[in-house]
Specification:
The chain is 37% helix and 23% strand. With 579 residues, the protein is of the alpha+beta class. It folds into three domains: 187 residues, no CATH class; 239 residues, no CATH class; 56 residues. Helix 1 packs across helix 13.
């Protein structure tokens, strides 16, 4: 273990007064006073008393203060995914929250109920797939950012040197940020990691995908759109493709995705697709300033940008696309090239082969921006000097398809550089690896989509098989219906959970005001009208004029009530309560 590594296997001893955390194989001991909530580090000299209980665990993830007091959060289960640069990479499987308070008797019944809801919110975030970590490798940085940095950087703890954009438990670890806790504080990322040992032409190599979701403007599909005043956009994800040979050759290619950096929204109101609206209350100067901040922050980190905009160029998406294009034109930033591509129009009637038109249009940009490449002898062959920023409306389905194609093109170039593919060979000639590549990128699409929208991605039949199928269209329909339900009736709770987890919301009680009268009345009337309509259909032995009048009346009541429910749809949507 180096000075910057984090303790992995530990034991927690729980007494009425303290938590004692003992790393295996170390003489350090972390003590947390349960009453004062103050943590300290001491030398382990056998001062652990007889404990009420003890538990093995594999990582300290932080703590959070709820209505009943503070809770310690520990990782209790993990899965080994593989190795990057010789470092083990793990997937978080299970966590446990341990209360500092010894009882809940100080809470009223209402506060106890609210406290349980807050606990379930934290657990809800941890149950959203997937979180990843390493005890010795900084997963928040790309390989290029980790290259050629100062020796002082490597002496910092993983938490201190991490890219804060991608540390999802940064708020939870606030209590443990001091340098004396550096070997205890385990940062985690949220997103997708896949590490695969592959063989092509008898040569072994590791191929990995690492996607990091940003904590800034994090949230759910319809409650987090666009940009904020600081230039942070919704659903921002950095995706890195890593290739590593057994001899130590290493390559990395980074792409990013993120919501269109304007102030816009789609407020859920029970309609299948709420209207896309540019926020009319925002001053045009603020609109321009926020977009410029976003572009300049990306330029500072990644260099030049090719902005690939995949939204429709007609309808409400078209109005958003034109506003974005016009603003980029007005800014005329030297680091940005705008590349619009009406995905649905170009690929209508399942003509998905037409995506090659887009890839051909940006091929020169990809070649010029390059990728990180370092050979086994330490020779740095190239650096990535720019990035593709891809977006559609959700930055999920269309975006993932295009990103996978850019990654495929890069991978073929890298494998030729490493001598694994010959100059005239194509990656698709190797069917076993080609199948793996497609399935991993489809899994990537599903996971990123689940984290943002609540369901797996659409269009993954193309990503998995290379063609659009009728079965895939049917599956997309099912996923769209599930998205509709979750986005309207679950996402307020999910948004509150994320805001609580990231420290963007305060714990309050009572948690929510009672719903308005329409929330109870209209659904009750609709259910009663449906029941009476069904009864009027089923029970009469013969139909008379009176029966038909009953059917018309209750049918009319159903239609009228449903109409008014959709008229006041915003009142029936599950909205965030904490922010």
């Amino acid at each position: 273990m180096t000075s910057a590594d984090v303790y992995n296997d530990m034991i927690i001893y729980i007494t009425p007064e303290k938590f004692y955390i003992e790393p295996k194989g170390s003489d350090e001991l972390l003590l947390i006073d349960r009453a004062s909530e103050v943590p300290t580090v001491q030398r382990n000299s056998g001062q652990i008393p007889a404990a009420n209980s003890r538990k093995d665990f594999c990582g300290l993830l932080g703590s959070i203060s709820l209505l009943s007091g503070r809770y310690l959060i520990i990782a209790t289960q993990r899965d080994l995914l593989g190795y990057i640069a010789g470092h083990s990479i793990w997937k978080l499987v299970k966590v446990e929250l341990l209360p500092y308070s010894r009882s809940l008797l100080h809470l009223s019944a209402e506060k106890m109920s609210d406290n349980n809801i807050y606990l379930s919110m934290v657990e809800n975030v941890f149950s959203t797939p997937s979180f990843y970590f390493s005890y010795s490798y900084d997963l928040t940085h790309s390989i290029q950012r980790l290259h050629d940095i100062s020796p002082e950087f490597w002496q910092l703890s993983l938490l201190e040197r991490a890219d804060n954009r991608f540390v999802w438990n940064g708020y939870l670890l606030e209590q443990f940020r001091a340098s004396l806790f550096k070997k205890f504080s385990l940062p985690i990322i949220h997103g997708f990691v896949s590490i695969n040992n592959c063989v092509i032409n008898g040569q072994s190599f590791t191929w990995a995908i690492v996607s990091r979701r940003s904590i800034h403007r994090a949230g759910t599909r319809w409650f987090k759109r666009g940009v904020d005043l600081d230039g942070n956009v919704a659903n921002f994800v950095e995706t890195e493709q890593i290739v590593e040979t057994i001899d130590g050759d290493r390559a990395s290619f980074v792409q990013i995705r993120g919501s269109i950096p304007l102030f816009w929204y789609q407020k859920p109101d029970l309609r299948y697709k709420p209207p896309i609206t540019l926020d009319p209350t925002v001053d045009p100067q603020d609109q321009q300033s926020a977009c410029l901040r976003h572009i300049e922050s990306l330029a500072e980190i990644y260099g030049r940008q090719v902005v690939m905009d995949l939204v429709d160029q007609v309808g409400s998406e078209g109005r958003l696309e034109r506003a974005f294009k016009d603003l980029l034109g007005a800014l005329s930033h030297p680091s940005v090239r705008y590349e619009p591509f009406d995905f649905h129009a170009e690929c209508r009637k399942m003509q998905w082969h037409r995506l090659s038109i887009l890839i051909d249009r940006v091929a020169l940009d990809q070649d010029e921006m390059g990728f990180f490449l370092r050979f086994r002898d330490g020779t740095l062959s190239s650096l990535q000097e720019g990035v593709f920023r891809t977006n559609c409306i959700d930055c999920l389905d269309r975006t993932n398809v295009v990103q996978s194609m850019l990654a495929h093109r890069n991978l073929e170039i890298v494998l030729k550089k490493f001598g694994i593919l010959s100059f005239e060979e194509k990656l698709e000639h190797h069917h076993s690896f080609e199948s793996l590549f497609k399935y991993i990128w489809a899994d990537h699409a599903d996971l990123i989509s689940t984290q943002y929208s609540g369901t797996g991605a659409l269009k993954t039949d193309f990503t998995r098989t290379g063609k659009r199928t009728k079965l895939g269209v049917l599956q997309d329909g099912i996923n769209s219906l599930i998205r509709y339900y979750k986005n309207n009736f679950n996402d307020g709770y999910r948004q509150d959970s994320i805001d609580l987890f990231l420290g963007n919301a305060k714990v309050i009680s009572p948690l929510s005001p009672p719903p308005g009268w329409r929330y109870i009345t209209f659904p009750s009337v609709l259910l009663f009208a449906m029941a009476m309509f069904v009864a009027s259909v089923v029970f009469p032995s013969e139909y008379s004029t009176e029966c038909l009048l009953y059917l018309m009346f209750w049918g009319g009541m159903m239609v009228a009530t449903a109409y008014y429910i959709f008229q006041y749809g915003v009142e029936f949507v599950d909205k965030p309560k904490l922010t």
